[in-house]
Amino acid sequence: MTNQEYGQFCGLARAAEIVGQRWTLLILRDLSVGPRRYSDLVGGLPGIPTNTLASRLKELEEAGLVMRAAPAGGDRSVVYGLTPRGRSSVRRSTRSRAGAPAACARRARARSSPRHPSSPH
């Protein structure tokens, strides 16, 4: 899927070009809960093609909304998180929907937390 370009030079048009792509807002929502490994994002976004996730993360990183970091030590997995600009963008985009950020964060936490064998599915 190619990016929609509006050919306008205002910040709102540029923001729409970035976050208006399919899956992008859901990726930002999941990262708003806290940093995530790639595999955590795949697990928390059922149905997202891995090539789409990889390209969206790269686009968000290039836009300065997401950062990737390799933790020190023996763990070689890459962790993705929101930059201060990314956190600000998520807050602004959800501010008008009272209660929505908390509800979305709860759903994202529930999806990313491991299930206990005794807990119901």
UniProtKB/TrEMBL annotation:
InterPro entries: ArsR-like_HTH (IPR011991), HTH_HxlR (IPR002577), WH-like_DNA-bd_sf (IPR036388), WH_DNA-bd_sf (IPR036390). Residues 96-105 have a biased composition (Low complexity). Residues 10-108 form the HTH hxlR-type domain. The keyword Transcription applies. Keywords: DNA-binding, Transcription, Transcription regulation. Pfam families: HxlR. Residues 76-121 are annotated as: Disordered. It comes from the Bacteria. This is HTH hxlR-type domain-containing protein. The lineage of its organism: Bacteria, Bacillati, Actinomycetota, Actinomycetes, Micrococcales.
